[in-house]
């Protein structure tokens, strides 16, 4: 039988703390996204799921770290279609339907995050249902990341979506010369039929500053 899956992005960066959690009970059911966050300072207009997790080579510069997560997760290549001459109607009054919004563009589908009245200041909490996100199969968002932008669009704080309640087997191939880095394989240890995610993070220490990241 297929068991429920949950992943969580735990934020603790630049004064922002809390989580965004995704739960899906079955591949045929929608995903439920819940969040409980503090310290956003009303930067709630743009939240996206990105293709890649945070790099293992940490950086003290959050904007730099959160700028290396790849593009908005878009397995159906919707952005390629909407940017072509066949994209259909455009203009200030045009609002695309859900099928023309990238899967990872949470704000375009669900709107800004919600501030709540509580004993704490700058507190945001809510929940929404998404029929396009998957925690199963090739297009799973597990192991990718969530990026919260400043309201001006600048990348701000980010966190990797990690499995909850499920131990994970990890195998690592490390490289030291002539390139440096690692290839990481991850699979839930209690489900041998589950997907294996593969993260490739290698770079040339002799002049190439940015690592080559891929997540399959």
TrEMBL record:
GO terms for biological process: superoxide metabolic process. One of its GO terms (molecular function) is metal ion binding. Gene3D superfamilies: Superoxide dismutase, copper/zinc binding domain. InterPro entries: Cu-only_SOD (IPR053257), SOD-like_Cu/Zn_dom_sf (IPR036423). PANTHER family: AGAP001623-PA (PTHR20910), SUPEROXIDE DISMUTASE COPPER_ZINC BINDING DOMAIN-CONTAINING PROTEIN (PTHR20910:SF1). This is Superoxide dismutase copper/zinc binding domain-containing protein. The lineage of its organism: Eukaryota, Metazoa, Ecdysozoa, Arthropoda, Chelicerata.
């Amino acid at each position: 039988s297929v068991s429920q899956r949950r992943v969580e992005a735990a934020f603790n960066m630049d004064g922002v703390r809390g989580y965004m959690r995704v739960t899906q009970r079955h591949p045929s059911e929608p995903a439920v996204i819940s969040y409980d966050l503090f310290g956003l300072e009303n930067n709630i207009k743009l939240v996206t799921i990105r293709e890649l997790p945070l790099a293992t080579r940490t950086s003290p510069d959050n904007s730099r770290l959160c700028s290396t997560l790849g593009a908005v997760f878009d397995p159906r290549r919707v952005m390629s279609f909407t940017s072509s001459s066949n994209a259909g109607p455009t203009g200030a009054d045009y609002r695309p339907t859900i099928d023309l919004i990238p899967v990872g563009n949470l704000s375009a589908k669900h709107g800004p995050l919600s501030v709540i009245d509580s004993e704490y200041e700058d507190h945001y909490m809510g929940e929404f249902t998404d029929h396009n996100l998957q925690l199963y199969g090739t297009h799973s968002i597990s192991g990718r990341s969530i990026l919260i932008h400043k309201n001006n669009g600048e990348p701000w704080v980010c966190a990797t979506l990690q499995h909850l309640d499920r131990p994970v087997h990890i195998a690592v191939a490390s490289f030291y010369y002539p390139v440096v880095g690692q290839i990481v394989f991850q699979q839930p240890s209690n489900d041998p039929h589950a997907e294996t995610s593969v993260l490739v993070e290698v770079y040339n220490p002799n002049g190439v500053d940015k690592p080559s990241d891929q997540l399959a």
